[in-house]
């Protein structure tokens, strides 16, 4: 891939620039729908239980054809096949990228360096299932013989966001007699608040870290260990019953004092942000049970298969990826909003932030050259109706183009009371209304026709033309969650392939880690930081002064 011609010099790229400049220079969704009402049905792609409507985009058949040509020219499907085959497409870390193997069926064969990895994947899933069942049934007891009532996952980034998001998303499927907490921040307040009302004798800590060297996680796990021992008369033996680890690094797990028998393994070909369907999902599996967890994996697999085999024009991750390229590279859109109309998806966008921004926040191509084009967008958003009363104003009437995904479900979760279930139509009415208002706006004529005084007309006019994708499913089940996550995983893949960047490394987080280690002694002991800049030195001095 590194010897590809420069992306922006490809004829397929310049064709899109020309297309943007002429016919669609001022594309209006009102006109596009007036000229072609059939787009409402035509621009819909179905995958698994997801109905993905992309009709409210600033596109025509020609735009789609040109985008598809770009995908062909940049060999997106070639890289996709290399990923599924287990080739080392993460070039800067020289690793295969095989999160898809985590949800492969038992009889699949996926080789890394000549070894079929699927049996290992299922061996770990089986071990997780047995453990989850023991915790859920009360057979796994703590050091004093009390059953486990609280599960605290300690991890950060991919070792936190995935399980925390999915636990929230699938709350209706969780064992409500167990309490789950997720600790990530090295701010001691996070662990303090997570454990302050828990009984150590009933608490299981799951230390989740791919590398088992991440300072935040190791620091929190060490403090959790002290908290546990303080509550259990300093009995070192208690650790074996109250701590398990999820990691690729058995050596470091043992060094920390966790019995390797209590370690659930995964592999270097699973990126942190692609890992919650691996052992990293143990807390989720305890919450929802092994069967539901496997249903979620089935959901991932539906979209994997779709991505692998659906033709380009009906390939959902490809289409969504291309739409993002269309706005990011040809309309200068800087961000992308993900707006779920489901309270249960309250952490979904935060999860996607890592997935997308850590993957595609790159400015060097696979050959090591600075890119001459925009890459990953800023991804942001919170559940829909809350956002409507906060930042939607800017999306509707601000100066920026912000493409958005609206995600909603036809049915509320079963356990809501009838009265609360009845609120669901109002929730979804908001989703549909927002998509409509964003796309079609309200013209000055329409505003005047309502008798609005002339001086207020500009303020009350909505120019519309804001693109949205609407993703609908019947219900937020474990399978549907898996489908949604895989959809975004592969969308991010498509964009990275087109931009010719390595979506699977994350060198950009390293410098801050190194500097934090260097600065810490200055805070604790007042030590000199070699080579510190004057601004940071002054801040350190002010901090030390203030905390006296
Ligand atoms: O610092 C970034 C990162 O490496 C993420 O990619 C990863 O998900 C997170 O830190 C946590 O890493 P680990 O699971 O190794 O503790």
What would the keywords be for this entry?
single chain; six-stranded mixed sheet; 548 residues
Secondary structure layout:
Blueprint: H1 11-21, H2 29-35, H3 39-42, E1 44-47, E2 50-53, H4 61-73, H5 76-85, E3 111-112, E4 115-116, H6 118-137, E5 150-154, H7 161-169, E6 179-183, H8 188-195, E7 203-208, H9 215-231, H10 239-242, E8 243-247, H11 250-256, E9 263-265, H12 282-288, H13 290-309, H14 316-330, E10 335-340, H15 348-360, E11 378-380, H16 384-388, H17 392-397, E12 404-409, H18 418-440, H19 444-449, H20 457-460, E13 468-473, H21 478-499, H22 510-525, H23 534-546
Parallel strand pairs: 5-6, 5-7, 7-8, 8-9, 10-11, 10-12, 12-13
Antiparallel strand pairs: 1-2, 2-13, 3-4
Helix pairs in contact: 1-4, 4-14, 5-21, 6-12, 7-12, 7-15, 12-13, 13-21, 14-21, 15-21
**Overall geometric form:** globular
Based on secondary structure, the structural category is alpha/beta
Radius of gyration: 25 Å
Average pLDDT reading? 96
Spatial order of the strands forming the largest sheet: 1-2-13-12-10-11
Tell me the major beta sheet. 6 strands, mixed
How many helical stretches?
23
Helix content: 40-55%
